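In practice, a research group might receive sequence data for several interacting partners and want a quick structural hypothesis before committing to experiments. The following worked case mirrors that situation: the sequences arrive first, and a predicted assembly follows.
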Amino acid sequence: MDGAVGAQPLLELTGATVRFGADAALDDVSFRMYPGEVHSLMGENGAGKSTLIKAITGVLPLDAGTLTLDGRAVRFTTPQEAQRAGISTVYQEVELLPNLSVAENILLGREPRSRGVISQRLMRERARQILADLGLDLDPASTLGTHPVAVQQLVAIARAISTDVRVLVLDEPTSSLDLDEVAELFRIIRELRARGVAILFVSHFLDQVYEICDRVTVLRDGALVGEYLTPQLLRIDLVHKMLGREASDFKTRQRGRVEEPDAPVFLSARDVGAAPGIRGADVDLGEGEVVGVAGLLGSGRTELARALTGISRLDTGIIRIEGEPVNLDSPRRAISLGVVYSSENRRSEGILGELSVLDNITLAVQAHRGVLRRMRPARQRELAQSWVEALGIRPPDLDRPAGTLSGGNQQKVMLARLLALAPRVLVLDEPTRGVDVGAKVEIQNLVGELADNGLSVVFISAELDEVLRVGDRVAILREGRIVETLASADMTVDSLLALVASPDEQEV
Amino acid sequence: MTHIWKHRLFWPLAALITLIVVNSVARPRFLSITMRDGQLYGALIDILRGSAPLMLVALGMTIVIATRGIDLSVGAIMAVSGAVALTVIDGSNDPSNLGTVLVAIAVAVLVALVLGVWNGFLVAVLGIQPIIATLVLMLAGRGVALLITGGFITTVNSDPFSYIASGYLTVLPFAFFISVAAIVALGVVERRTALGVLTEAVGINPEASRLAGVRSRGIVWGAYMLSGVLAGVAGIIYASNIKAADANATGLFIELYAILAVVLGGTSLAGGKFSIAGTVIGVLIIQTLDSTILFLGVPSAQSPVFFALVVVLVVVVQSPRMRRVIGSMTRRRSRPEPDPDPERDRERTGVAA
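A structural hypothesis for the assembly, expressed as tokens:
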């Protein structure tokens, strides 16, 4: 696997230190990448991964240490300089322009010109070529925003490799991709590796790291823990090194499963259809039950969640709460009936980054009370404080703008906002996406505790093992239909995977 | 005390104080206030009185901008409101009757409210971009005002009506009390109810707010209604001042001055967090600058240039970059060599390596 590893590193960082004020975000870290290898950078949120990436891509200057490329010391002051030297980056959140065409996005700033004028024809041709190299069948003239996030992500990669790339940095590239698309991405990564590109692959998914990476560098609290060959490092050891604690501390708490099958049904949906993708969906959600939803991207996971919570209107079907038909025609109405939704898009549909943690947590309660019945400041503080403590939100500073918190803590703030409403049904859409291992387990445990206290939860996740671990039952979605709902105790990740991915002949 | 210059109102206040100092140096009489017949007179009093229409319009604009919107139609609404009020008074048998004037004010404000409802409908219900939605009325409104006055400049002689802009309540101009009442009322409504924080939430992220159960549509709609009503009152004050309804001149360019006042006060045009106190200071800066130009005897042809220069200066000083530079200069005052921005310096020297 590391046959391509030569004697001289392509990129080497020695004694790198980056300080923010008095704190060292990166403290004397050494890091190297060889041509033709896939290298992973592992660590919890805040370990210094992003800082290291920014240091090698010219976003942040080094306070101490050296960066060499091909044995020559370099110093980038802008991302453009790094890019000219062959270092390209694809960030976690797609940073493209949705209102431009695919071709324009790929070639932005490097548009082919004929006689000084940008040539749309040449641009489309070149974009088509680049996409074809990646094996992507995509109309270069189509508007980027019309494609799903997963496709946009692949376009971002196409953009990154359309330059003469030598080092490709992929920061959480798979967090919004489904299994097929991950496979597609890995195919592309392997091809680039064969061409001698050094690829830095940062991901929270251990499976993917073990599948694709040759070498792992582990960071903790801004310091280097070590560099390892992936096949020689046991997973349990990797997690241990990342957390600096025994992994057994993080075992999911096993909660008492609801054994009797006739626990009272709190919410039931019959023959629910909603544009664009959901047809004839039946869901029964018992009191204190966690129903996991598993399905590929595009199977209608989010559409189902939105149909159940009043975000999108139903075209067909009926929803009953405790047997009474209800009309969930707005999120506001759903909230008043105790049905709340946590969006998968934390940034665009969740956190209000400029408002304080306090305002973020109390927002929904305040909106529910109405404009005139403002909560007293002391009461607001008390409420927010209690949730910050209950969910372990870090740092526990109520007046800090919520946008400055880490992903996992922002997720907890969103949860706190909804839980403060004392809901009966909590619909969680990808609540653990892009959060670190520790926060992920905390969120999973929290769901279990909430269900033990009688809250009904719908838990949507692209990670099948998580769905199985958290859900009492799992609803399997395929192309907008719930094909089966099974007790998770009766399934393994493999059997669930087969159900999620299998073609329709399995249906009776 | 450590970071006074970081407070969001520091620079607006500094600009206002600087203007006042410059004025009082250039013309010592600027600060003097005299008492005549139990009424106060002086340049500062004139500023307080003269700022009333802009104050009202800018307060409404603040809330609209906080919702991520903008209201370009305020000048036109002022013109319509003035035209309606004067037409009612002009058409009555007894223009000097207080009742007549009160009816005229009520009708004019009601019409302004209807125009605000229209703006809000276009933005909040039909989802038209605010700048386009309010442009409709900005362009059409003055035509409507001309239609109401029959194409003429309606003039009236009505003491109760003139009192609004020129009269005194105890020792201070009545118009000043209208300003104060609007500031206090808005401050109370925004900060004592939840309207302020919900408005900010909608301005920062309308979809996230909707999912959290906020009535985004109602809040946005309400902002345009408020802006309409305040512009209506401003139109009445303006008409009262000149005792006439001039559809073409009333509130001309006031939307731009109002936006400027909001921005000078530190509220971002991107929506979200807003500051009523900031807007008040912004209005006072503009009004003081206006009278400075008069005091200094800048020829009226050149006064826009002078005005623009000062505004550019204030805006540049407030820009994030200048703030950083000034901030770090203050921090490093004790050091021997001035070192305005070490990070940039290091970046530049780093290129050589």
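Before designing any experiment, note the following. Residues 333-353 of chain B have pLDDT under 50 and may be disordered. The radius of gyration of chain B is 22 Å.
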